[in-house]
């Protein structure tokens, strides 16, 4: 895609966000933000017994790039394993949003991805804590 196609793609995700809603019964939800510019994202994930995302959604407010990123990530994650999500990086967002846009606004473009990865880490930490609590109560 050329620059104008990326911009059109981002505007479509911003104006017609995919999976933008509060998810009831999420296995994990986590908020993230860019304090300097006021972008906010909350990521919601449902995970199956094989550690694959079955559903992803987001809520948020902020600039076009951060909110389009939330929509793109919420659309991308279902079907992915927790370990695959942890391996994603800035290059993933460059592929989705375009090099010019990501490099000029890295924090905005990667907010949803970073929040999703932090949510995965939170889920895994919560599981370890639950296992330890279970072991100490037995």
TL;DR of this structure?
The chain has 138 residues and is of the alpha+beta class.
Q: What key phrases describe this protein's structure?
A:
alpha+beta, 6 helices, 3 strands
- Assembly level: single chain
Q: Give the helix/strand class.
A: alpha+beta
- The main sheet orders its strands as 1-2-3
Q: Which CATH top level class fits?
A: Alpha Beta
Instruction: State the low-pLDDT regions, or none.
Output: none
Can you lay out the helices and strands and say which pair or pack?
Blueprint: H1 3-15, E1 28-34, E2 39-47, E3 53-61, H2 64-76, H3 82-87, H4 90-97, H5 99-104, H6 106-137
Antiparallel strand pairs: 1-2, 2-3
Helix pairs in contact: 1-2, 2-6
Q: Any overview of this molecule?
A:
The radius of gyration is 16 Å and the shape is elongated. Helix 1 packs across helix 2 (64-76). A three-stranded antiparallel β-sheet has the order 1-2-3, covered by helices on one side. It has one domain: Sufe protein. Chain: A (Alpha-Beta Complex). It is built from six helices and three strands; from the N terminus they run αβββααααα. With 138 residues, it is of the alpha+beta class. It starts with a helix and ends with a helix.
């Amino acid at each position: 895609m050329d620059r104008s196609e990326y911009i059109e793609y981002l505007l479509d995700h911003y104006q017609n966000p995919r999976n933008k809603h509060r998810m009831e019964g999420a296995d994990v939800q986590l908020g993230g933000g860019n304090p300097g510019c006021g972008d906010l994202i909350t990521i919601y994930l449902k995970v199956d017994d094989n550690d694959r995302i079955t559903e992803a959604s987001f809520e948020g407010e902020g600039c076009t790039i951060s909110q389009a990123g939330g929509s793109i990530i919420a659309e991308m994650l279902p079907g992915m394993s927790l370990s695959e999500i942890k391996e994603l990086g800035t290059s993933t967002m460059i592929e989705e949003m375009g090099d010019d846009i990501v490099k000029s606004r890295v924090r905005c473009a990667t907010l949803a991805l970073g929040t999703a990865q932090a949510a995965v880490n939170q889920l895994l930490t919560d599981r370890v804590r639950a296992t330890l609590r279970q072991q100490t109560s037995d």
